[in-house]
Amino acid sequence: MTDTTRGDAIATPAVAAVQSGAPARARSREGYLFSPWFDFLCLGGGAVIICAIVTALLPQGLPKPALGTLILVLMTAINQPHFAHSYQIFYANFRQKAFGEQYSRDLRLRYIFSGLVVPVLLIGFFVVALATSDARLLSFGANIMFFLVGWHYVKQGYGILMVDAVQKKMFFTDQAKLLFRINGYACWLVAWVAINHAIAQAVPYLGLVYYTFDIPTLAYQIMCAVAAVTSLAVLWTLFTRWRELGHRLPWNGVVAYLTTLYLWVVFVRINPLVIAIVPTFHSLQYLAVVWRYEINATRVQEAAGKRSWLDRAARVIPSRTWRNVGAFVLFGVLLGYLGFNGLPNALDKWLPYDKAVFGPAMFLFMFYIFINVHHYFLDNVMWRRGNPDVRNYLFAKPK
Length: 399
Hints:
mainly alpha; 15 helices; 2 strands; 72% helix
């Protein structure tokens, strides 16, 4: 999710088609993805509440068996579907997106690069590592993934702030948005450098070992200073905008931005259980946007007279919107399970390879790296400001 703060992001024919029949109840929820409290809890507020309770009541986290069970449940129900949904949205009508005339040339090239080139590069990286029996080379995939994860988190937090600002028509200047982005990147680099500075360490991950980088302490101190200065500048900018808007702000977006940068990235290591559950809150933040996008997309298509094979289930689930969205969610759960568990575990069991070199879960390692890294590239295309799908579906009002 990136910058969508533009006035013209809302006014489109597709949106008008959905808005025309909006009842009073729907109009009362204007400015929100779903509702004030649902948005608050899903976009970041719920994470603050739960993490505060966890830190106060479980300072040492959970025992390993209980923690493993909790992570398994959360991954299956929330984390994995959030990855799967990015594939479902990105590759829907991919030929039109990459080669049609509906999208700008720049956006089509981005779709081609992220949708076709990046997967080939990732697979090529895996093939080279396997062909040369180089476990150290393969383990660099974990370095890439953990380097990108903080970048992805802060970009999503910034994107949620921009989405909320658009919905509430409380826009920020270009200078303010640039400051928000710089502060996000500074916080990300502080967290990444903190893990790596002073000494390189060997860290086990899914049966392989990857190595952190030996980064000088001075570099860490410089990044902390940059993050501190830009954080103060962000607080001043928000305060100034609050006064300009008559003591108002897109509060859910602000909470999402601050929670993402500081609780999920900079100070995530305050508690071992917090580290384990933060990916779930990140995924839930993402799912709230995806669900609204998919509901609006279904309603816009219905207004245009487009039919779905799921219409055959009308007698079971009368609402066409919930038929399509329900199928979308269930397929995401299945796709996520196959990508993170079913397929890699089956390949690790059935296909022979040198387990003495690559460990017992080589395919599981590669699937995790591939999906995580590719996900970041997909999101960078889908949720950018110039994508017409964002204008047509994300900001449409409920019918």
